[in-house]
Amino acid sequence: MHPDRRYSSVFFGGGTPSLFDSHQIERILNHLDKGRWLQTNPEITIEANPGSAEVRRFQAYRDCGVNRLSLGVQSFKDQSLNALGRIHDGHDARQACRAIRDAGFDNFNIDLMHGLPGQNQADALSDLHEALTWAPTHLSLYQLTIEPNTAFAADPPLLPDEEVLSAIRCAVHDLAGRSGFEHYEVSAFARPEYRCRHNLNYWEFGDYIGIGAGAHSKLSFGGAVYRWRRPRHPHEYLRIMATGCTPDPGPPLQPGELLFEFMLNALRLKMGFDYRLFEQRTGLDWSRQQPLVEKAVADGLMRADRGQVSTTPLGWRFLDDLLQRFLSREEEPLTRDMMA
Question: What pTM, to 2 d.p., does this model score?
Answer without folding.
Answer: 0.91
